[in-house]
Amino acid sequence: MPILSQTNLTRSKNIIIDGLFYSYKNLEVFRKFSLQSDRATVVLRGPSGCGKTTLLKLLSGNLILDKATVIPPTNNSCLVLQEDSLFPWLTGTENISILTRLKPEHFKQHPMYKLITDFVDQKACRMSYGQRRLIELFRAIVFRPQFLYLDEPFNFLDEKHIGLVVPFLQGEFMQGINLVMSNHHRDDLDMIKQANVFQFDGLFPITSLERLS
Q1: 11 to each of 16, 53, 70, 74, how far by Cα in Å?
Q2: Distance, CA of 98 to chain centre
Q3: What span, in angstroms and rounded, lies between the C-alpha atoms of 179 and 41?
Q4: Which residues contact 58 (CB under 8 A, 6 or more apart)?
């Protein structure tokens, strides 16, 4: 895989992308791709396999892109993928502390903590998928990166818990944080306010996205 060229590379503090190229094996995924948001929250919509997760991995530095003119910085970012990333032999509290380097007495003060308090001291392997997802989202939010990337964050959550999580992804809890999330459920999307929504059409190479709002 080609190494990212740093020549004349500008790193933006906002969600601005310009001149992004990325190929995987024989597939040119992004070609001179550009995207610009005027809001702190960006929602990426589209069917499975359309490039949403690949874009999140590129922006967070988990994939090495071929080249780009403008991209957000990767050194203060956090990516939460669809796959479970908790250490199964550790408790929820330990999983939060190890990755965020925050002491429990610090993050227990966060208002979202009440959503996980009943199971946070269990080992992750004993939690349900929905409980582990709540731990992962809580960990990312209290970590407070400059750029937070969430790949289908509502997977494994029922409608009730989605409604409880969404407020923590908006408003005062996201001040100073740029949020980019992929999502393919329209009902979930309706709960995310003040976001720029971009649609993937599933065609390659991707040069731009349709802006829905």
Answers
A1: 9, 21, 6, 9
A2: 20
A3: 5
A4: 20, 22, 30, 65, 71
DSSP class of residue 146 equals S
Q: Say how many residues make up the chain.
A: 213
Q: What is the pLDDT of residues 20-75, one digit of tens each?
A: 999 999 999 999 999 999 999 999 999 889 999 999 999 999 999 999 999 999 99
C-beta separation of 141 from 112 below 8 A = yes
Distance CA 211, CA 190 (A): 15
Contact 196, 37 (CB under 8 A): yes
Is the distance from CB of 17 to CB of 35 less than 8 angstroms? yes
Over residues 107-161, the pLDDT tens digits come to 999 999 999 999 999 999 999 999 999 999 999 999 999 999 999 999 999 999 9
User: How deeply is 125 buried, as exposed, middle or buried, from its count of CB atoms within 10 A (0-12, 13-18, 19+)?
Assistant: exposed
Would you place residue 187 in the very low, low, confident or very high pLDDT band (cuts 50, 70, 90)? low
Whole-number Cα distances in Å, 184 to 129, 130, 143, 164:
19, 18, 25, 19
* Amino acid code (one letter) for 42: V
Residue 3 confidence class, pLDDT cut points 50, 70, 90: very low
